Amino acid sequence: MSVEDPLKILEEYWGFTQFKGSQEALVQAALLNKDALGLLPTGGGKSVCFQVPALMKKGICVVVSPLVALIQNQVDQLKKRGIKAIGLTGSLNFDILDQALDNCIYGNYKFLYLSPERLKQDLVQERLSKMEVSLFVVDEAHCISQWGHDFRPAYLECSLLREIHPQVPLMALTATATPKVVEDMLHYLAMKSPVVIKDSFERHNIAFHVVRQDDKQFPLKTLCSQLTTSGIIYVRNRKSTVQLAHYLQQQGVTATSFHGGIPEQEKKTKLNDWLTDKVQFMVATNAFGMGIDKPDVGLVVHYQIPDCIENYFQEAGRAGRNGQPAKAVLLTNEADKVQAMNQFLSVLPEVSFVKKCYKKLCNYFQIAYGEGSGDTYSLNLNSFCATYHLNTFHVYNTLQILDRHSVIALNEAYHKKTSLQFIAKKDDLFLYMENNPSLKDSMKTLLRTYGGIFEFMTPINTLLLSKKANISENKMLGVLGILARDGLISLEEATNDLEITFLVPREDERTINPLAKSIEARHGLKKNQLKDMLRYVTCDRICRNKQLLEYFGEERKEDCGRCDVCSQKKGTVNKEKTMSDIKRALNGKNATSKQLGQLLNVDAPILLACLKDLVETREIKINSKNEYELVAL
């Protein structure tokens, strides 16, 4: 088959006239019915590599993917292009699943997306055997390796695909893989004489920087004010997305927040505002970005230290997909290391706790021994933890472990969590307290516990509030209902924040014992990954690009010349000159950091360092308009 044919498909459905990187080589491998492993960087266009040949071949392309959101995104994108695609997501009952699989056999569908857990179902295996399959695809294939950053044991079931249709070619794709993970992918997927195609993970147009400053809001404001294109700011938790977006708005920067707990319609509105440049910055948790391709992102900021280099590199790689110069900046300070250790390591549950938690979970829902498989329940995490006096973070991480090992299917429904915002003026509020003394203590507890509750909708922990106010949770909920009724607050109320489906019958220790070694190995891997991340953050002697590429088994001989380490090497002799230029520019005229950056044509990290030094030595100061001005001698 000539290369012109896939190019016609590419242009017809995607509007591109040529492939980029190694896309064409992977397309040709699929058309020649060869197994292929594609290692393409974030933004490398992995989906095109299998979607184009699948449209040219007879039959249906079966894609295994680990994330519901990613499946839904790709299915939606294909449907928009007029391509028949279906995704088997959520807890489908037998009749719906049966009908969907029949549609794949008889309905001229070109793509079937499913999770690795689906492959365990006898019905799915039986129907797959009857389908005319053109190509098997394992997306995010690093999940098959216990050394991968998102290991999912269910991915080992992907080898079933080779048993069902031995002659159908298989394509495995990933954007982040160490040499050990590559070895595991080839082995566990039983790939036959595969074509291994690896693009360099290097992103030549991205300048990686680590900026250390106690007050991280200062460099963030400076970075954002200097940018003329779009940006993403990653934070560690949902509350921080709202707070930081609010701070940027106060600084005159257009920003919005995004996290997994936002209602779907609001997510769509926020995403559309950012994609259409109505909003410049998206402040988000790592729930944001997967499957979203905005080419003109000029800046990605990590406001805290990520848990591993794989996640950091993937998120940072969302910058500069149009090939234009872009920056990936990690902001850190002395407290960050301890916070990262506490968040990522201290809450890892031991195997004994996993056993205990699983047993309590079964008792909580009154599941009898040998029963429960396929049953779905709603769970209020706080109430469950309070009932059995368990640490919330340990329980949540345990649920994720059980989900990863296919003991349960965990669906986070945080959009149903109780949230509120005070809409009454403070004077009216104090008057209300005087007239309603029985509500006064509860209201004071609420106001003392949550900052920013007058400015924006704030998720609250009703169990925590009830303990602080020394009343029952039901009574606290009653107080909130009264405040909403009387027009003091806007209230979004819910009783559950998680949905759990039990995937195997209850067998207590016999269920968990086989997972013990895997759990312990994952904990060890997590510790090593965080150590590697912290080493990257603290090492300021080796080019950032060299450090990142070496982690993924790639050697770079030359320094990149763009990162903070390289800039520091080049800029040491120029720092004094830059500070002199700043003072000269401010002689008789005040200016913002953005104006100074444009005037002096200096990289933001160097400019920030110089401004910081000049402020600390009291040679310049910041006025009420957030402008820099010379200090009179």
Describe what you observe in this structure:
Among the domains are: 4-198, Rossmann fold, CATH 3.40.50.300; 345-415 and 497-526, Arc Repressor Mutant, subunit A; 418-492; 572-633, Orthogonal Bundle (Arc Repressor Mutant, subunit A). It has 27 helices and 21 strands. The strands form five sheets. Strands 3-4-2-5-6-1-7 form a seven-stranded parallel sheet, sandwiched between helices. α1 (4-14) crosses α3, α2 (23-31) runs parallel beside α3 and α9 (217-226) crosses α26 (593-600). The protein is globular, with a radius of gyration of 27 Å.
Which helices and strands occur, and which strands form pairs?
Blueprint: H1 4-14, H2 23-31, E1 36-39, H3 46-56, E2 60-64, H4 68-80, E3 85-88, H5 94-106, E4 111-114, H6 122-130, E5 133-138, H7 160-164, E6 170-174, H8 179-188, E7 195-198, E8 206-212, H9 217-226, E9 230-234, H10 238-250, E10 255-258, H11 264-275, E11 281-284, E12 297-302, H12 309-316, E13 326-332, H13 334-344, H14 351-364, E14 376-379, H15 381-388, H16 392-404, E15 408-412, E16 419-422, H17 426-435, H18 437-449, E17 458-459, H19 462-469, H20 473-485, E18 489-492, E19 498-502, H21 509-512, H22 516-538, H23 544-551, H24 564-571, H25 575-585, H26 593-600, H27 604-616, E20 620-622, E21 628-630
Parallel strand pairs: 1-6, 1-7, 2-4, 2-5, 3-4, 5-6, 8-13, 9-11, 9-12, 10-11, 12-13
Antiparallel strand pairs: 14-19, 15-19, 16-17, 16-18, 20-21
Helix pairs in contact: 1-3, 2-3, 5-6, 9-26, 13-22, 14-16, 18-19, 19-20, 25-27
